[in-house]
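Researcher: Next sequence.
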Amino acid sequence: MKSRMLYFTFLILYSTFSATAQYDPEKIDKKAITFYDRAMELAEAAKYKEAVASLNEAIRRDERYIDAYLSLAGVYGELKDYTQSVSFYEKAISMDSAYTAESLLPYAINLAGKGNFEKALQTINSLLAKPDLHPTTKKAAEYRQRSFQFAINYAKTHTGNYLFAPQNMGDAVNTSESEYFPTMPVDGKLLVYTRRLNGMNEDFFASEKTGTAWAKSVRLPGNINTQQNEGAQNISSDGEWLVFTGCNRPDGAGSCDIYISYKTPDGWSPAFNLGSNINTDQWESQPCLSPDKRDLYFSSRRFGGLGGSDLYVSHLLPSGKWGKPENLGPGINTTGDEYSPFIHADNQTLYFNSNSLQGYGGDDLFITRKSADGKWGKPENLGYPINTIANEGTLFIGADAKTAYYASDRGDSKGGLDIYSFEMREDARPARTIWVKGKVFDKKTTAGLPSSVELIDLATKQTVSKVQTDETGNYLLTLPVGKDYVFNVARKGYLFYSGNYSLKTKAPDSTYQKDIPLQPIEVDASIVLRNIFFDTKKYEVKPESTIELDRVVQLLKDNPTVKIQIEGHTDNVGTAADNQKLSTARAISVTNYLVVNGIKGDRFVAKGFGASKPVADNKTEEGRAQNRRTELKITAK
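Model: Next structure:
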């Protein structure tokens, strides 16, 4: 798991420009110095609020105590109270600008913490203009100069009235311990996260949502939590798998490995190490499953990467094992660290953290989108105020594409890191999705059938999602809205199912129920080939029909003794003779495709029926559309 770096700005040495100082530390009240020294001990122990009290007492005893003002500003910076921090820096600088010259660096950083990047840049430029600047200070100032300039440029190109208002998720979720790594199934009714207990042991907890309220969180049931650390988890969209990070375990390959647990009637199963394809003797962590559970994204420091920790993806093989991971490449990974990948339910929008891509001065959150050709676009910084001068934590966005969850130690934290929710800025949101769920079953017996369910983008012919149903045939898919899909279901010994579904007009965040009957391969069994298309009054198959035609070819290759009849049907518009001729020609066009793709002619016949076998009323356009169809019928097994 990623450690959080702290910047003890109040410990910076202020000696470079003190030669012309008016302030003399030797003249400070001795009792004030005692309180100051005590404050430094408290600050070193991260007891910042107690340090504030001690520093205020030092200043009360001697109002000339510039070092106390500077350190008080630094402590408030650690508390992320940037307004107070800036105020005390300005007080100290006004008292002696020479003595406090190098405090311009932490002063500028805290100005940026307030979001005042213009003044922060002016302050850094003033610092860099000074002669004889210490090399370490100069290097740090130049780094901040680039960050502040980036922030100013970003603000010019991202205008709007976005209100960033994170809401603490309250006592049901957050405690005086640290809570982080929020994640949930696609229905948004269960929040699963990591909690660090007693500052050491990490376990998984969950809170259920009833209406708009979150119930008191409890440990995940079953055998997933152990005496060892479990963290950095991700639950699958259907809520059935949980992948996570386990470190220094007896069955581990390296320092930290990726594990998986499965939901059972008795709770979560004991964890299984994902094996040598995923885990090495190096560091692997922060896994995230794609919504169809076919891809596993994670961060790794394995040899052969581009820098520190890189992002990788592994694809699930037909054998059920995970394939060799692929580095996401130099478009995303850098010489620094990339970590905490999160792939949204739309399966095309990826969020992650980086400390090397240009940002605001800490570990920032980035977004990249997958194009139609499967390549990732250039990462974009999520911008201020989502990203700040501090290190940003992991991000999760719900299926509604706008409600985001993350962990932070904001001012209203109940202790350490708490989980917050906020509304994501519109231009940084993923695609909105719909949920498609249902059951695959045997048409004759109604028994559920474990099957492969695949959805293909009708326009691009790219597979958008492919999942395996559970043992009882149930499935869940999430899909981007605004597209039309080919819906395919296949199982050995059965005719494939294929449906063409126009989901462009479906409302986002809605649930689309589709139960699918499969017919056993037997004589007289038939299916409608819903994704074979013709232009009006034409018989040539359109290019988008190849997805369906290839299914027919594969069916015949998988079942070499099967013979079929391809039947063409029309509506009743036009003459009976013309309809008969057109339906026959269309059936022949389909069988011609089979021949071209290696199917022998003695295994099929083409037959047209015109409008003689309607399946719906020809009085309506909807009915006529159903009657215009191509069917496949088994004639011999």
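Model: The first strand starts at residue 167 and ends at 168. Residues 135-157 form the longest helix (23 residues).
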